[in-house]
Structure formats: structure tokens, C-alpha cells
Amino acid sequence: MVGRELSGWLLRRGLQAAAAFAIALTILFFLMRAAPGDPLSRISEGRPLSPAEVATLRARYGLDQPVTQQFVSFVGGLLRGDLGVSIEYGRPVTALLAERLPATVLLGGSVLLLNFTVGLWLGVRQAVRRGRREDRWLTTASLIGYAMPSFWLGLVLAWLVGIQLRLLPAAGMQDPLLSLEASFVERSIDVLRHLVLPALTLSVVSIAATMRYQRTAMLEVLQLPFITTARAKGLPDTVVTWRHAWRNALFPVITLFGLWLPILVTGSVFVESVFAWPGLGSLAAAAVWGRDYPLLMGASLLVAALVVAAGFLTDVAYAMLDPRVRLA
Amino acid sequence: MIPLLAVLRSAWRKPRGRAGAVLLLVVILAALVGPWFLPDPLAQPDILQGSLPPGPGHPFGTDQLNRDVLARVVAGARVSLSVAFLAVMLSATLGAAVGLLAGYWGGTVDSALMRLVDGALAIPRLFILLLVLAAWERVPLAALIFLIGATGWFATSRLVRAEVLRLREEGYVHAAEALGARRVHVILRHLLPNAAGPLLVAATLAIGDVILLEAGLSFLGLGVQPPAPSWGGMVLDSKEVLVSAPWVSIFPGLAIVITVLSANLFGEALRDAVDPRSA
Amino acid sequence: MSRVLEVENLKISFPGGDHTRVYPVDGVSFQLERGQTLALVGESGCGKSLTSLALLQLVPPPGRIETGSVIRLGDTDVLALQGEALRRIRGRRIGMIFQDPMTSLNPVFTVEDQIVEGILAHFKMARAKARERALQLLQEVGIPDPEQRLKAYPHQLSGGMRQRVMIAIALAAEPEILVADEPTTALDVTVQAQILEVLDRLRTSRGMAVLLITHDLGIVAGRADRVAVMYAGQIIEETSTGRLFANPSHPYTQGLFASVPRITGPLKRLNPIRGSVPAPAAWPSGCRFRPRCPKAFDKSELEPPLLPVEPDHLMRCWLAEQQGAGTRQEPGTKS
Fold first, then answer.
1. May I ask the CATH architecture of the domain C1-93+175-335?
2. Residue ranges of chain C assigned to CATH 3.40.50.300
3. In this predicted model, what pLDDT tens digit does every residue of C292-305 receive, in sequence order?
4. Whole-number percent of chain C with pLDDT over 90
5. Contact call for B136 and A37, based on CB within 8 A
6. Interface ipTM above 0.90
């Protein structure tokens, strides 16, 4: 029955995602144009510009055209993969973004992994032990984790682990002194050592949310009648918890992936700047400090695209995993 | 409908809710009266002495400009709390207004507003704010509050809309409409009071988020502008003396954790009171 | 006949606020013999479902079974079991069927998965062999085209089919006792009859004892050997089915009969019992039925024990002492 319905649903959901991205794009563009201040102020570096210079610059960045015209050419550029040239770095924005993406994917992927293992596991444990001491302690711990500003936690960890205890490097992604002949394994270990602190910082802040969410979802499932059926069959507790309950509590948690990406991206702006991790987050922070509008715009667009895509993929995963799903 | 007073009382009865409320009141009280008893947060009594570790006279130590860290943390509480409360009030109002409008009028108004919200929710709030705030050399505090508030209503409007859609199906709203009540009357008299519970929960939980957001913006230099003390700004300034004077970083951060934690504790207790299933 | 299940003074409590506890099941005792069907009858909220869950220590938290309660399965003291030993009797000694087949089956697993795991939880065998048995079980509960049904997910089956699957699951580990908690309440009338027929057939063919929990006296007749009527956490009348139908003695039981619509016999106005079952925290002192009882008298203010009405017929009412007074006044309605 599904084939036809599924493709129709996919198409509709895809269009919806595209519409959300188009609206996000429009919002971003007009926000940037509506903001007070002149994008040229940074280029002039405080030096008074001659009217001729101003005119040249305005023409170069297309600022001499009406806003709607600017919007059309911006969207045209976007479709060709051209997001303009960074003011700070003097290079194409797309190239900069592509260069920084792998580091962020590595960091984000590690955090994701920790969330979807440790975070889920703790949330399930809490639900199973609802109201007991362990549940209460973990709840308190997760609330504290959730209340931590990631930039501060990052600094504290950098100070404690990186500087006081000298256990791990507290900045960058690679040891600049590592010899050029170092093997792949040595290099990987070096990157991993650099990864620990930023990944830990981001995880502490985000796992709290995952735990809370998983706990609630799991509690809801645990009181459903089919759990009693499973127990009455004589299944061991672990099978009841993980096979029967968790498989069902997983669906709301999949949705979390869509909600969770913005938290990760936001956190990475702070954590990457604190640990000088060469990813998109620190690039965005640098763009802010340099008032580098094209770069900031490009980073924001990329983030919006990721968030929309994550939402879309979440729904698709949901539809594929749940045998009951009614495509609506 | 759940009367707000009953919700507050029920939240107060839970140990966590009470702990959160008491902690939050302590922070608010400290922010209100603390500055009378503490040194001037901007005073630099002996700038050459640099930062002193915590000790008598300076319980939290002094920063690199020899300013009293405790006085600055307390002064920062004033700024952070006012930004948070005002911004949350603005976003709750906007969210309620848009949600009521979309949910009650329905049709094109609803779809247009909700598509807009879909799009806005695709951009993490921080990035919207970065884009707008980067335009200022120095952001005026009022503009900061306005912008944080104006970017925080998207999720709230969805929440209120859902609540309105649910309530519209209930008998008494139909009854009021059948009796010829005017739309404004139905909204103010029937829908808004019923949506107040979830709205209060969302607003309380948003306080913590906004404090973290403002601290983050200040940490990036886009929030509260120095020399006005703010928790995020203090952490930013402390980066350069992290090795020699870690206390300058630690105390403002602890202030953020405690304040956000207390707001969230109270918010969760409120949520349990409004929706007991989530406990 | 040999006794397969014995419940003695079963008490289940829940926190009632302000550190008090309430007792939705308050001193229930009954026995079940091999091959026998006992019907536990009562309105919702009388504690009959909790009683059945207690048999396998499945009372949901924060409820708990009070010390002093005894549940004996043959020689096994159920309430002394925990962990692996407890798991081994669940499904193996007692199989359970629940009220709502919509929500009692796990939506994300196929019928095959759900039956097979019940078999493998108790017997060491290859999965293929277990699948073979699952197939036989589906045939036994009368599911047409069982090969196909094995691959189905619960939402692809009708309510009646789902309840048959539930029965197959309950039979997976060949228990000697089958507990059916309102097995037909959620089903259409015609399907109800089919399910009851399946249960009857299985009891005869497998020689199982059945504990049938229901609010519906109509399905008890001709099916149960004995009936225990529950009200407000207690058994208030217990006897053989024949005696109960011939001579319902407790005013509450009489009320239940008066509120059942009858197809045969003269058309009569139904007489529902006034009021409703009070919540466990609000149970009155003395006889718990007193506030709703048309025959309450001064002695009802004392709590009555189970008293004999006639041989092998007990009721929790002081009227039993007056032998017959007012207990036989409605023979016309039950022929």
C-alpha cells in the first residue's frame, strides 16, 4: 500500500521543508539589510572614504541597487553556490564554509554519539527507577548541566584539565609541533586528544536535555498496557525495558534530533571559540567580531539549511521506523 | 481551567519548586539591595595591584582592574535579571498575541503566520541575533532587550495556538460564540485565561534560556556593553587572566548557573502543576 | 480435584496522600481447582483487576501487596519470589489476557515476535521450532490463514483477531492457569461470543483452570463453575454458579441481577443500583455497601464477615443470620 502514498508524502514534506528554508532565507536577508549601520563601515576601518571610493565599494557589493534587486541577485548567487566574498578573509564564503565544515562535523558527531548513547541510557535508567534516589540525583545533575553556559564550562575545563592538570590540550585541533613525519595513527590520537574537552563541554550541556526528554518519553510508555503484557509473559526486566519499552520510547526521541541540532550549533559557536576549534562555530564568532556580513550570512544560511534538513530527515526516519505511521 | 494561584501554590508545595523559588528570590533580593552594601562595581581602588584572590574585604577576590568581583557579580545580576524579565515579558506577549490570532482566526492568517514561524524556527535564535546585533558598534541596552524579546516568541505562539485550537473544541467557547459573543470578548474572557497556565510555564522556563542567551551574547561582545557589568561580559574579560586569577571567571559563571537553575526548577514545578503527567 | 491456586487475605495498598495508605483490595481470599473456572465479578473500581495482577506480582507502583497476604501456586509461595524465580512463573504457571487488545499488544513487533518471545522465555528451543509452535497456537485459537497473520503487526488486525493473538501469547508457555481480565469488554458483541467460545474450548482441551474477571453476569452463566462477587475491595458473596443464579443473596448481587437486561421473560424496568462505587479512600465503615443498600439496617454499621447462607454459599451481610429473610424475594426474574 505504501509506495504511492509514501512518495506523495515525501514530496509534500520535502516541499514544506523547502518553503521553511525559503522563508528563513528571506528573513535573514531582510534582517541584515534592515539592521542599522553600514556594511561598509568595517572596510573603511575608520578612515574617511572619498565619495568615489564609496561608490566603487557600493557597486562592488551591489549596494547601489534597490533592495529587491539585491535580493534577487543574492538568491541567484545562492543557486549557483556563490555566497559572496568574505570581507575579513577576502575569499569566497562557500570555500571558507566548506573548509571549516569537517571540524564541526567531527565535534558535532562526537557529541551526537555521546548524546544518543550515554544520554539515552541515563534517561531510560531514570524512568525505570522513577522517584528513587538515583532518579532524583540524575534529575538534579541534568538540571545543573542544562543551566551551565557552555563558554564558561569550557573555560573552567580548559583551566582545570588543560592548564592545572596538564592532562589534555585546551586549544586547537592539532599540535602544531607534531613532526611532519608523524604517522596517521599518531595524528589521529592527537586530534582525539584535542577533541575531548570541547566534546565533553558540549555534551554536558546537551545531554541534560536528551536525558530529560528520554525520561519523559519512557515514563509514558512504561505505563502502557503492553508493558504489563510483556512482564506477564515472563520476559526478563532488561528485555521489557529495552526491547518493549524503549523501542516505543524511541520515536519521540528521534524528534529530539531535529530539536537538538540548533542547540548543538548554538553551543558550538561558544565552545569552538573557547577551544579555538577550527570549525563553523568559531568561524561565525570570528565573522561577528570582524563584522563580516557575507560570512555571517553564509554561516547562518548553512545552519538554517542543516536545521531544516534535520527536521525533514527526522520525519522520514520516523515514518520508516514506526510500522503504524499514518502518512498525513 | 486551572486557576493560576492554585498552580503557583502547587508548585510551591514541591520541594524542587520551593528550592527554585527561594533561590530565585534570594538572587533577586541580592540584585535589589546588594549594591547598597557593596563597593562600587566600577571602582578601581588600586589598579596596579591587579587581581587579588578571594579573602577578607573581597570575598570573591578582585579582577584584573582591581574591581571587587562580588560587587560586579551582584551588579551583573541587576542587568541580567532585568534583561531576562523584560525580554521574556515581551516575547510572551508577542507569542500569546500571535498564537491567539492564528488559532482563533484560522484560515489564511493562520497558515501565513505559522509558515513564518516555521521559517523563523529554522534559524537558531543566536544566529538571528548575531546578524542584527553585529550592525551596532555598541548595542544600547534597550535595543538588546527588544531584540532578545522579539526573537523569542516563535515557539510560544505555536504553544498558545495549539491550546486555542484545543479550547475552541470545548463546549463553552462554542456556547459563547452561539450566544453572539464578540471575538475580542471570546479571546479575552475565555481563551486567554485558559492558555495562561501553559504560557506561564513557558515564560518561566524561558527566563533561564534568556539569561544564558544574554550571557552568551555578552561573552561574544555583542550583549551588554562594558563598563556595565554583566555575567557573560565578566567571563569574557576574565579569559586573559584565566591562568593567574581563575576566580574572576568562576564566580560570574556560578551566578549564571544558580540563577538559571533556580528559574528552571521553579518552571518545571509549575509545569508539573499544570500538566501532572510530565512529573 | 487438586487445588492449583490459593489466595488468602490479599491486601493491596496505594499511597493515599498525607502518608496514609488506601486499600483498593482489602482481604480477598479464594481458591481455584484444576480444570475449574472461577468468575470474579464486580463493577470497575472494585479491585478485581488489581487482584489478578497481584497473582504475578504485577501491581503497578506505587501500589504494593501488604505483608500477611498469601498467594500459593501449588506449592509455590508467589509473594516470596523475586527476580529470576518470579520471572519463571510469569506466563509459565499463569498466563494472562487483558481487557484491551488494542493497547495490550506491542505496536512495533509482529505477532510472530510477540508469541515466539513468550515461548523462548521459558523453553530452550530453536527459533524455527518456536515459530512452528506459534503457528500451532494461532490455529488453536482459531485464526484463519495463520502463516500470514504471523507476519502482521497488531494494527493490521481486527479487535477480535488481536484478542485471539493475546490468548495465543498467554498460552505460549503452556500455563496451568489462565487469567482473563475482562477479555471481551472492548469487543463487539458477536466477537465477544467467539472469544468466549475459544476460551471454553481451550479449558476443556488443555484442562486449564480459568480465572475469569468480568463485570458482566451475563457471560458467567453456563461458563463458570464458581462465582465470587467483589465490592469495594472485598469478596461479598461466593458460591457455585448454579446457587448464585438460583439464590442471589447479597443485596449488592441482587442489585447486579436487577440491572442486567434480560432477553427472555417479561419486559421489566431495569433497576440499577443507586449511587456508584465509592473510591477506596471513601469507603464507609461497617458494611461497605451500606450507603447504597436498600436493606441496610442498624447492624450494618458493624463490618460483617463472610457468613453462610446455605451450604457452600457465603456472603458478607448480616442478613445471612436471619436465614432467608428478604433474600429470596426475586425468583421470578431469574428462571
1. 3-Layer(aba) Sandwich (3.40)
2. 1-93+175-335
3. 888 888 888 888 88
4. 34
5. yes
6. no
